[in-house]
């Protein structure tokens, strides 16, 4: 089984520091099922590739096997595809050989370990139970460009048709630890099998390596079920633990407290109300009838949209199921007349993952959302919104960092909200917005929201993208 990892980051040989494996010498490691070899087919300043080659010993596997499936007389235990395909053996090898990189640690390049890098992973033979469509449903929502070549069952007997084996290439800009975590979890999911007994310990592994992406993945239930070998009790416990952060009173209290801090800062200029009014005005000017509010939270904008009859189809999407429950309560969905209820729907999902439900709307609104994203995740958000959902109009707002000096009680350099990952100046925001407009075929104009200060601008900046 062969996995290659490549980067064009400059200098590309930094990949060796991240993997903790020197490009200048091959290395071999004993694993319970055989031997893992690491070597570098290429290592230049411009491009570096690390290869992980697994030699699986099928006879040793049978000797080590326990339980009812370990019948040493069964030919299938000795003659199978395990030595040649990516499977749970690869996950074990990644943990054994690239453990530091998998956990995001690097002694020599600590800052690079968390940085999004241009990465390409190639799996020479990957079994996909569910076919190419399922393969794409797993990796494309994570921001990868997927290339898959399906192999014939037997090239000498064409009538047998295609096999379930693919050569797969994944390309994306992300930290190396993210790529390795995705492979660690999803390769066994695609294979839909594991070479060892699955116990409660596997739940901890799944949640550890799925942290930050699994909870909001559109296929999270299938991933969980397959990863745990369809053991229902384990899958139920895993899903409960996976989603418990969204439903705990503590988390809700903390988030509410943070929101109150931000609201207190902005109350003097009534920004919350002014933002909604500015967004509604932009939507009306563009003649939008169907709107999806991405990151809708507790539904304040949705309520305003629902009061305008011109909006005939309204969709609210948020990653938090708890926020959607609050939105449903505030909108009184269960008590709405049928005609009103048919105009609006609430969906659980993430703006970082490709989702067909986002497509087909006249307009999308993204109000005070992007500043909560890690900067390296912006690339995934950009493609989801502008390339895949591709509404005719996008109305997006974010804080103007320059205006923060006007807020009493806000320390110099501090953000308005503790969960903000960044806050842009007007120049930074306009530069980002113009790049997206040019890249995805939109025009863009900028609208200040709130009291306009001659020196530092308005407290909120808004971009209206149209195509």
UniProtKB/TrEMBL annotation:
Domain Hen1 N-terminal: 1-242
A Pfam short name: Hen1_L
Signal sequence, start to end: none
GO biological process: regulatory ncRNA-mediated gene silencing; RNA methylation
Origin: domain of life: Bacteria
SUPFAM superfamilies: S-adenosyl-L-methionine-dependent methyltransferases
Reactions catalysed, as given in the entry: small RNA 3'-end nucleotide + S-adenosyl-L-methionine = small RNA 3'-end 2'-O-methylnucleotide + S-adenosyl-L-homocysteine + H(+)
Keywords: Magnesium, Metal-binding, Methyltransferase, RNA-binding, RNA-mediated gene silencing, S-adenosyl-L-methionine, Transferase
Cofactor(s) named in the record: Mg(2+)
Residue intervals of the Methyltransferase type domain: 292-392
An annotated Gene Ontology molecular function: small RNA 2'-O-methyltransferase activity
Xref: InterPro entries: 3'-RNA_MeTfrase_Hen1_bac, Hen1, Hen1_N, Hen1_N_sf, Methyltransf_12, SAM-dependent_MTases_sf
EC number from the UniProt entry: 2.1.1.386
Keyword Methyltransferase recorded: yes
NCBIfam families: bacter_Hen1
Family: Belongs to the methyltransferase superfamily. HEN1 family.
PANTHER family xref list: HEN1 (PTHR21404), SMALL RNA 2'-O-METHYLTRANSFERASE (PTHR21404:SF3)
The protein, known as: Small RNA 2'-O-methyltransferase
Naturally occurring in which organism (per UniProt): Myxococcus fulvus
